[in-house]
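Lab meeting, item 3. Inverse folding demo.
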């Protein structure tokens, strides 16, 4: 499981078989799948931050200007 901060929003990504799955993480530890964003299966782990930046760039702010890796 890869945890990322997407412009201030806590999310996680995991690889299941040949598919990437994206989740929204709550502050209470609950996780919900994000079905409206499909991550192409050919993307590598190194490309995930850039892809999520492209998808969610409208949510960028002065306080949260980038997508950051939280943990692997």
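The presenter then showed the designed sequence:
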């Amino acid at each position: 499981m890869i945890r990322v901060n997407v412009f201030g929003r806590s999310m996680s990504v995991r690889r299941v078989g040949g598919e990437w799955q994206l989740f929204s993480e709550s502050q209470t530890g609950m996780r919900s799948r994000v079905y409206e964003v499909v991550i192409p299966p050919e993307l590598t782990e190194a490309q995930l931050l850039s892809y999520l930046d492209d998808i969610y760039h409208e949510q960028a702010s002065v306080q949260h200007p980038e997508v950051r890796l939280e943990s692997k």
